[in-house]
Amino acid sequence: FGSLLGICLIIEILTGLFLAMHYTADISSAFSSVAHICRDVQYGWLIRNLHANGASMFFICIYLHVGRGLYYGSYMFKETWNLGVILLLLVMATAFVGYVLPWGQMSFWGATVITNLLSAIPYIGTTLVEWIWGGFSVDNATLTRFFTFHFLLPFAIMGVSMMHLLFLHETGSNNPTGLTSNTDK
């Protein structure tokens, strides 16, 4: 499932780049820019649906990949496994900030509720939430930050994926037979 994850990542990055050409990260026009992409941009509806549904496919492949890793004991290769966990967290963060970008009611309240969960952290929680928001509530600064994170995180995911593959190449991967394909490793 790792190769499928690579394909999903490439599709998400390519469709995301096309969407970013027409998206406006401003609270007064974000929703309208998404409507513009779907209605006025040639094949914009297709690109947006590929991007949105591609994210769901990405998570299906991730869960299958993690399940396979758990079943075959891939967690024994600690560096590879830990990088995989970091990748999972990065993908979840990217999906969350991407969910906020259309700036509908679900997006706004999703951002408000999920970021407010951080306020439960003792001593620094409230300060952390206000820092993420860029003020005292979810507003224009929040949307701009989330768009920036959503644009940059996939490239970080690509870099960490390369490291993940490097460690996988170093240790070798697990398989149903439990046999290694290269006895020198």
TrEMBL record:
Subcellular location: Mitochondrion inner membrane
Protein name stated in the entry: Cytochrome b
UniProt GO cellular component terms: mitochondrial inner membrane
Membrane-topology annotation of the record: Multi-pass membrane protein
Keywords associated with the record: Electron transport, Heme, Iron, Membrane, Metal-binding, Mitochondrion, Mitochondrion inner membrane, Respiratory chain, Transmembrane, Transmembrane helix, Transport, Ubiquinone
Domain (Cytochrome b/b6 N-terminal region profile) ranges: 1-177
Major subcellular location class: mitochondrion
Pfam families attached to this UniProt entry: Cytochrome_B (PF00033)
Annotated Gene3D superfamilies: Cytochrome Bc1 Complex, Chain C
Classification of source organism: Eukaryota, Metazoa, Chordata, Craniata, Vertebrata
Subunit structure: The cytochrome bc1 complex contains 3 respiratory subunits (MT-CYB, CYC1 and UQCRFS1), 2 core proteins (UQCRC1 and UQCRC2) and probably 6 low-molecular weight proteins.
Regions crossing the membrane: 7-25, 50-71, 83-102, 108-134, 146-167
Example of a GO biological process term: mitochondrial electron transport, ubiquinol to cytochrome c
InterPro entries xrefs: Cyt_b/b6_N, Cytb/b6-like_sf, Cytochrome_b_N_euk/bac, Di-haem_cyt_TM
Role played: Component of the ubiquinol-cytochrome c reductase complex (complex III or cytochrome b-c1 complex) that is part of the mitochondrial respiratory chain. The b-c1 complex mediates electron transfer from ubiquinol to cytochrome c. Contributes to the generation of a proton gradient across the mitochondrial membrane that is then used for ATP synthesis.
Domain of life, source organism: Eukaryota
Entry keyword Nucleus: no
Gene that specifies this protein: cytb
GO MF, one annotated term: quinol-cytochrome-c reductase activity
